[in-house]
Amino acid sequence: xxxxxxxxxxxxxxxxxxxxxxxxxxxxxxxxxxxxxxxxxxxxxxxxxxxxxxxxxxxxxxxxxxxxxxxxxxxxxxxxxxxxxxxxxxxxxxxxxxxxxxxxxxxxxxxxxxxxxxxxxxxxxxxxxxxxxxxxxxxxxxxxxxxxxxxxxxxxxxxxxxxxxxxxxxxxxxxxxxxxxxxxxxxxxxxxxxxxxxxxxxxxxxxxxxxxxxxxxxxxxxxxxxxxxxxxxxxxxxxxxxxxxxxxxxxxxxxxxxxxxxxxxxxxxxxxxxxxxxxxxxxxxxxxxxxxxxxxxxxxxxxxxxxxxxxxxxxxxxxxxxxxxxxxxxxxxxxxxxxxxxxxxxxxxxxxxxxxxxxxx
Amino acid sequence: xxxxxxxxxxxxxxxxxxxxxxxxxxxxxxxxxxxxxxxxxxxxxxxxxxxxxxxxxxxxxxxxxxxxxxxxxxxxxxxxxxxxxxxxxxxxxxxxxxxxxxxxxxxxxxxxxxxxxxxxxxxxxxxxxxxxxxxxxxxxxxxxxxxxxxxxxxxxxxxxxxxxxxxxxxxxxxxxxxxxxxxxxxxxxxxxxxxxxxxxxxxxxxxxxxxxxxxxxxxxxxxxxxxxxxxxxxxxxxxxxxxxxxxxxxxxxxxxxx
Lengths: 361, 258
What we know:
The complex is a heterodimer of chains A (about 350) and B (about 260).
Chain A: H1 3-7, H2 25-46, H3 51-74, H4 76-110, H5 116-120, H6 136-167, H7 170-184, H8 188-203, H9 216-241, H10 244-251, H11 257-286, H12 289-294, H13 313-321, H14 328-356
Chain B: E1 5-14, E2 17-27, E3 32-36, H1 43-50, E4 60-68, E5 71-72, H2 80-86, E6 87-90, H3 102-106, H4 108-112, H5 118-131, H6 135-138, H7 151-164, E7 169-173, H8 181-194, E8 199-203, H9 207-213, E9 216-221, E10 230-236, H10 237-242, H11 247-253
Parallel strand pairs in B: 3-8, 3-9, 6-7, 7-8
Antiparallel strand pairs in B: 1-2, 1-4, 4-5, 9-10
Helix pairs in contact in B: 5-7, 7-8
């Protein structure tokens, strides 16, 4: 008898028959039907919960029932396999449910004000009794603020990551990496306060006759502070994934290090870097607190990111959701839908752009 | 225009670890020299120190003199990139640039070193791919990705890329160890062809390969793990494989050791 046979019951090392019985699909379905029927009767019959609880209890009963049914027919190992597989599928469904729910809620509630007026007007002169009013000014604000923040954070972040991966040695690089990690955890309100005290209260008076002034650009600065660590870390990971032999291959051709990084390492890592940048952009586009603190929000259209209050979509959602007007919630939902769609479109566009440079496989 | 390489008392270190000890050898122009020996004996380290590729690792340094046509490549005023342009290298695993097409891979060295004229690049691409015996297989799909070729083709593409910058010496670090026998044969044929133009030094674990392709052979060995590698014997390939003067060499090539 082999060790395996002695230790694990039911295992035969030299079986005469390599076939085994399989649980019929009918049995599987019967177990599922029975499990959900029992759950429905118990939960709804006794009135301890609604259909959601019934489904959850039914799923648990199904897993248990499947384990015993399969155990009787197929043996313990196969039964474990089946149960675990079913568990993984349920976990996957469970993870997707909230996401689907969010999308459904956004679309179903946001569709009400999804009209041309919403995208072409601002909230200027819109009173509590006006059903119209739109988010044009907020869309402009979000695009400008996030765009400027991206222009600042991407070059800095990518160059910083290149330093950490390709040049950084010893204590200084370790310190930089540590502070980047610390920055990742900065709450957005703290970034907003930092820019408020530094830019809005100290620097902006120099350009405004001694008066502090809110601006979209200040919001961009705060958003850039928030984007920077995400970009550095994700770019760093992507650059580290570029195989060393590629760099060596380039060096061996007599190509200097900076050109190797620019023409071999960065293009190879580009799709991953773009993904990291888009994550940072998505985060920045959704930030409300810094914009509220340093751009102030506005009801009117303001194209100039350097002069005066500016609105953003997330801030618009926040303000409309808390507004007393009965037309405001619909505007908030549509603005939220617009924000999600905007980020989605930007992400898809960036991915396509990054892929176009690559060769077709 | 092939060049003569002279190493005198070259010792190589990684930090405080001594990888090779006092290697001296002279490699004549337009010859193929094979370096053989057990794993970890320092033959790759020696090869990489010839074009200063070992410096990619932090803490790597070298003692002794390594000259190419009487210029010491370790002089302080020497430009590393110039050394590497003069002494090309082919690696163990084919490493074509994944974002570049076959054509771009072949002329990558020229392009990245500043050649822009399309006609020159076209000419160099065809010439180097022909030299690497790859032209007929890829001429209809030059714009396809280089990583889509077979392993043997990728390795020949890497050889084409190396010789496109017209180096004087080509170093090969076990170029066939990841390839099948037919691709290996293709690359050995190629080495004979390239011998007219370049000095070639090849590290190989395949002793038949060393015996087939090389004019001279150097045998490296270590006494035990942790000791630096030494050049035990360096002589005509003919002599090394028929009548080596060192007992250790004979043990190694007859398979009694290593």
